[in-house]
Amino acid sequence: MSEASDHLADNINVTAAVQFIEGQSDPNERRYVFAYTIAIHNAGSAPAQLLTRHWLITDADGRIEEVHGDGVVGEQPNIAPGDTHTYSSGAILETPVGTMEGRYGMVSADGIQFDAAIPVFRLAVPGVLN
Fold first, then answer.
1. Counting CB atoms within 10 angstroms of each CB, which of 32, 97, 102, 119 has the fewest?
2. Cα separation of 29 and 20, whole Å?
3. 3-state secondary structure of 6
4. Exposed e or buried b for every residue in 10-35, given b needs 16+ CB within 10 A?
5. With contact defined as beta carbons under 8 Å apart, do 104 and 53 qualify?
6. Taking the model in full, what pTM does it have?
């Protein structure tokens, strides 16, 4: 990556909030359902558009699922300077604990492509971890 794309990537801050969905989960069937809300904040001085996503979803048994695709929940949002784009989605694991992390493929208003990191966050059934 170039210095310009590194700088652009540093301006995109991604946070996640996770909720266990007990009513849709079935531990006897090794089905643990989680909802998560992602906030993507553009702390830079130029607009950026989210084009693609790449997720690594890891369960407690070490299984890794890779997910690639265009946009997020059917959108390729433009995020203006100072704005935050939020969306909600979900994941199903076979274990009560796991992690998600990845990156968004972005493009700046002047056409520079860059990856914005999605820091690792935990999916965990309440009370399973101390």
1. 119
2. 16
3. helix
4. ebbebebeeebeeeebeeeeeebbbe
5. yes
6. 0.92
* Nearest C-alpha neighbor of 59 from the set 29, 24, 38, 32: 32
Please give the torsion angle defined by the CA atoms of residues 87, 93, 97 and 98, in that order, rounded to the nearest 10 degrees.
-60
Q: Phi then psi for 10, rounded to 5 degrees?
A: -65, -25
User: And the tokens for 108?
Assistant: 């700046």
Regarding beta strands 32-42 and 12-20, do their DSSP bridges make them parallel or antiparallel, or are they unpaired?
Answer: antiparallel
- d(C-alpha 98, C-alpha 27), whole Å: 14
Distance CA 21, CA 124 (A): 11
Domains by residue range for the chain, with CATH? 3-124 (2.60.40.1470)
Tell me the three state secondary structure of residue 34: strand
Q: Mean pLDDT in each 10-residue stretch from start to end of the chain (130 residues)? A: 72 97 97 98 96 98 97 96 97 98 96 96 87
Task: Tokens for 86, please give them.
Answer: 């939020």
How is residue 44 written in tokens?
Answer: 């830079």
